[in-house]
Specification:
Elements lengths: L3 E4 L2 E4 L3 H11 L4 E2 H8 L3 H14 L2 E3 L6 E4 L1 H18 L4
Antiparallel strand pairs: 1-2, 3-5, 4-5
Helix pairs in contact: 1-2
């Protein structure tokens, strides 16, 4: 559930678990280190650790072989992200 907070002309909302996971998958499509996931997905260290572990356990992200902890979105992760984007696009049609 999202909670909206109005700040000036901006409508700011907290991201939920699914949105954060989508941001992590999108950030790691081409393979990135953990710190870059933090920056690109706008997470702190504890959040990165929690959600990255969850994504690794689900098989959505993998660690590249022969690399110093470079994380990359797996085929399963690409499919999940594609379906997520389809859902978001279709739900925007119902927004007013």
């Amino acid at each position: 559930m999202k909670t909206g907070v109005r700040m000036g002309n901006l409508n700011w909302q907290r991201r939920g678990r699914v949105e954060i996971l989508a941001d992590i998958l999108a950030a790691s499509v081409e393979g990135v280190r953990g710190t870059h996931i933090m920056y690109k997905a706008n997470l702190n260290f504890a959040q990165r650790k929690r959600y990255l572990t969850e994504a690794l356990n689900a098989g959505l992200i993998g660690v590249r072989v022969n690399s110093p902890l470079v994380y990359a979105t797996t085929e399963k992760g690409h499919d999940w992200l594609k379906n997520y984007r389809k859902l978001i696009d279709s739900s925007e049609a119902f927004s007013t």
